[in-house]
Amino acid sequence: MRSMIAMAILLVGFGNLHAQNENTKTEEFKVYGNCGMCETRIEKAAKGVDGVSSADWDQETKMIEVKYNSDEVEMMEIHKAIAGAGHDTEKVEAEDKVYEGLPGCCKYDRKSQHDMNDEHDGHRH
Questions:
Q1: Domain CATH number, residue 104
Q2: Which domain does 115 fall in, by range?
Q3: pLDDT in tens, 105-121
Q4: DSSP letters along 87-98, please?
C-alpha cells in the first residue's frame, strides 16, 4: 500500500514538472549598460519579477537571456522591471530621473538608443 502511495506522489510530481517545463520559455533581448554593477542591477531586476527563474546579462553583447514561466509573467513586465532599475531595453526606456541616479560608470550612451527609436520605415522624423 505504501509503495502505491509513493508511486502516486511521484507521478503527480513528474506531472507538475512536465507542466512547468511546457510553460517555461527562454527569451533574449538587448539591455543597455556598461559594467559589472550594471549586470548585477539588471539581473536582480529581472529575477525580482514573479515567474522569472533566471536572468543572465552579457556585458559585451548587451543581451540578456531570461527564463520565465509564461503563465505567470509576460515579457513586457520584465522589460518594465529592468527599465525601472534605470536600464533601457529594446522595448522600454528607463525614466530619465532613474537613469540619472545611476553611478557614473553605469551611465551608458542613451543617444544611440533614442536615435534608433526615432527611425520609422527607413526614414527619420
A1: 3.30.70.100
A2: 23-124
A3: 999 999 655 454 554 44
A4: --BSS-PPPHHH
DSSP 31: B
Residue 92 lies in a domain: yes
Residues of the chain with pLDDT under 70: 1-21, 111-125
Contact criterion met (CB below 8 Å) for 88 and 113: yes
> With left for phi above 0 and alpha for psi between -120 and 50, is residue 86 left, alpha or beta?
left
Angle of helix 36-47 relative to helix 75-84, nearest 10 degrees? 140
Cα dihedral sign for 31, 33, 34, 35?
A: negative
Tell me whether residue 84 is in a domain: yes
User: pTM score, two decimals?
Assistant: 0.74
Which residue matches cell numbers 525580482?
48
